[in-house]
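#onboarding

Welcome to the new folks! Below is a worked example of what a typical request in this channel looks like: someone posts a single protein sequence, and someone else replies with the predicted structure as tokens. Don't worry about understanding the tokens yet, we'll cover that in week two.

Example request:
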Amino acid sequence: MKSEKKIGLALSGGGVRGIAHLGVLKALNDQGIYPNRLSGSSAGAIAGALYCSGHDPSEILEIIVKTNYFKFLRPAISWTGILKMDVVEELFLKYIPDNSFESLKIPLTVAATDIKRGKVAYFSEGSLIRPLMASSCIPGMFDPIEINNRFYVDGGVLNNLPVEPLEGTCDYIIGVNCNHLPVEHTINNIKKLIERTVIMSMNYNVYSRKNKCDYFIEPKGLARYGVFDIKKSQQIFQAGYESALIYIEENPSILELSNSNPNIVSP
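Example response:
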């Protein structure tokens, strides 16, 4: 069945766990479901940008594994962060050379946090790469990203599932969260305690928007993977793919969104 409905896809942040979004996208595409619009925070914004620029989910996985851009980050001599993201800009340009929202095949909105104003900022036009860097700029770890004399950090701080840009423009919204927490029986060190607390906060942010989604896909147990655990990329991708297939089987009405055209561009 070919759908004429406009489909929005909102992708959460989560570091390397965001690779699960690519598995979910592949599963949706395999079922003929192609989003008309995407929005994302942090890792979700990066996955969304590469997908919207025309790269296949499996190809994006190869790009991320091959690039491993974390190793290119260099120390920042400042009080605001430990690492600088300068080199990452060059890496993005390699795969998104046009560097503009307008050049994307599918419309995209990127969420970031205006650190001085304490508000969410949404980027959907003009230069693309610096908003991507801002959206994935983990506070305290990276220097804030300056755009038009304002300073931005990770979009997930205030909105880790940016469904709002899709409301009113899409008939159906699919939300994807890559930070599902398994039950933990032993929290025996401060590292685990901090990581679990941060993810709980991120998920509260996500779940407060869950009811805005018509469909909500959340691969199980991904929080056991570290934010920078790039060596587990294939497992994370596969977890996203398999979880999405299970979700589709359990929620067959989503197949009504199937569309035969993989390159949909909405005004």
